[in-house]
């Protein structure tokens, strides 16, 4: 059985390259061969979005599913890369966490909008007093980041959330911030993140000794609303969009994309049109506010050792200037 499966996967890959080389130079579905249950998105969108030229892979499904975790990982070579950008040596933890979830659906079955117009709402202070709330709420898909609040900031950031991307140290813990309509997406950086999720879903107290900042000790979201992001999305953000090196000097902390850039990468794969708000920062004003909420200052951003903000600003400037995205808070 196992040998048969391996044979099937290998021959699928072989077939893919043959067909790709001969027939489908402009093929729109990279994973057509084994992703039967995941229909390619945007099939009925006639014009290809401009940002498509940035995407090195086509037809990536953004969430992990239990049924084909191994096959997809092998196909995308995520099984050759350790966390945070692959699943090597952590497949077991991924399986354990995924086995507790109930769905890996992207959109509800009732959703019939084929070409999605999306907005990624960053957490930047630039959103303050711009009263963009109503405009933001008008998009088909609204992607928010970490614990960027809606409650109390509705006029400036809107009320609706389709997706919220988080990690264990950044997820809401106050039930008042719960939105029953949101799907929340875990970005996994270490195997402890998966154990943390599994423990919370099982009602156990997670081991929090391996976190850089205290993670949430309760989950306000329903199991059926939780998804796990395929690390390939973060990998594409890091290597293809931000051009990070694959290894860093020993004395330096490896840089990873911020949740904001991961959210934009996700949007590129699930949307036909991508707009941004709240991604512009005033770097000369070190004592100015960083977010549209709370008291964190710009100084905190300039001292972050885990991200490369310069690379992210170059990327953002580039996609805005080339009109790959529209930025609602540019001026
Ligand atoms: C936003 O408006 C509030 C209330 O009108 C005001 O106190 C605050 O200073 C304004 N903030 C900015 C950044 O303009
Ligand atoms: C950025 O902050 C500096 C220092 O407070 C200020 O002089 C400048 O006008 C700000 N720039 C923008 C574009 O708001
Ligand atoms: C921000 O600072 C104000 C005034 O110092 C304080 O009242 C408020 O609680 C702080 N907010 C947060 C989220 O820390
Ligand atoms: C951050 O990215 C920029 C632009 O790619 C690069 O020049 C710089 O060396 C990077 N900095 C670090 C600390 O990795």
From TrEMBL:
UniProt record, GO biological process: glycolipid biosynthetic process
Location in or out of the cell: Golgi apparatus membrane
Keyword Glycosyltransferase: yes
EC number(s) reported in the record: 2.4.3.6
Coiled coil region boundaries: none
Membrane topology qualifier: Single-pass type II membrane protein
Molecular-function GO terms, alphabetical: N-acetyllactosaminide alpha-2,3-sialyltransferase activity; sialyltransferase activity
TM annotation in the entry: 6-24
Enzyme kind, highest EC tier: transferase
Catalytic activity line of the entry: a neolactoside nLc4Cer(d18:1(4E)) + CMP-N-acetyl-beta-neuraminate = a neolactoside IV(3)-alpha-NeuAc-nLc4Cer(d18:1(4E)) + CMP + H(+); a beta-D-galactosyl-(1->4)-N-acetyl-beta-D-glucosaminyl derivative + CMP-N-acetyl-beta-neuraminate = an N-acetyl-alpha-neuraminyl-(2->3)-beta-D-galactosyl-(1->4)-N-acetyl-beta-D-glucosaminyl derivative + CMP + H(+); a neolactoside nLc6Cer(d18:1(4E)) + CMP-N-acetyl-beta-neuraminate = a neolactoside VI(3)-alpha-NeuNAc-nLc6Cer(d18:1(4E)) + CMP + H(+)
InterPro entries tied to this protein: Glyco_trans_29, Glycosyltransferase_29, GT29-like_sf, Sialyl_trans
Cystine crosslinks: 118-271
Similarity comment: Belongs to the glycosyltransferase 29 family.
Full protein name: Type 2 lactosamine alpha-2,3-sialyltransferase
Organism (species): Monodelphis domestica
């Amino acid at each position: 059985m196992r040998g048969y499966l391996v044979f099937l996967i290998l021959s699928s890959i072989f077939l893919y390259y043959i067909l790709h080389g001969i027939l489908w130079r402009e093929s729109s579905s990279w994973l057509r061969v084994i992703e039967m249950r995941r229909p390619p998105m945007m099939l009925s969108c006639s014009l290809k979005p401009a940002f498509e030229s940035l995407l090195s892979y086509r037809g990536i499904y953004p969430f992990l599913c239990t049924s084909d975790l191994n096959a997809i990982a092998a196909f995308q070579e995520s099984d050759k890369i350790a966390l945070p950008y692959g699943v090597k040596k952590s497949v077991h933890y991924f399986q354990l966490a995924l086995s507790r979830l109930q769905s890996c659906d992207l959109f509800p079955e009732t959703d019939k909008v084929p070409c999605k117009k999306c907005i990624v709402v960053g957490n930047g202070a630039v959103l303050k007093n711009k009263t963009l709330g109503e405009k933001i709420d008008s998009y088909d898909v609204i992607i928010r980041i970490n614990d960027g609040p809606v409650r109390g900031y509705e006029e400036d950031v809107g009320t609706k959330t389709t997706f919220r991307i988080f990690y264990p140290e950044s997820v809401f813990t106050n039930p008042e911030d719960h939105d029953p309509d949101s799907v929340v997406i875990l970005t996994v950086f270490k195997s402890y993140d998966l154990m943390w999720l599994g423990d919370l879903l099982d009602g156990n107290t997670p081991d929090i000794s391996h976190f850089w900042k205290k993670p949430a000790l309760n989950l306000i979201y329903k199991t059926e609303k939780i998804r796990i992001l395929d690390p390939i999305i973060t990998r594409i953000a890091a290597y293809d969009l931000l051009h990070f090196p694959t290894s860093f000097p020993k004395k330096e902390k490896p840089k990873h994309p911020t949740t904001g850039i991961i959210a934009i990468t996700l949007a590129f794969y699930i949307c036909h049109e991508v707009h941004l708000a709240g991604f512009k920062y005033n770097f000369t004003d070190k004592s100015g506010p960083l977010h549209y909420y709370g008291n964190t200052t710009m100084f905190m951003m300039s001292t972050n050792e885990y991200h490369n903000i310069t690379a992210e600003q170059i990327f953002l400037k580039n996609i805005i200037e080339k009109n790959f995205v529209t930025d609602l808070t540019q001026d």
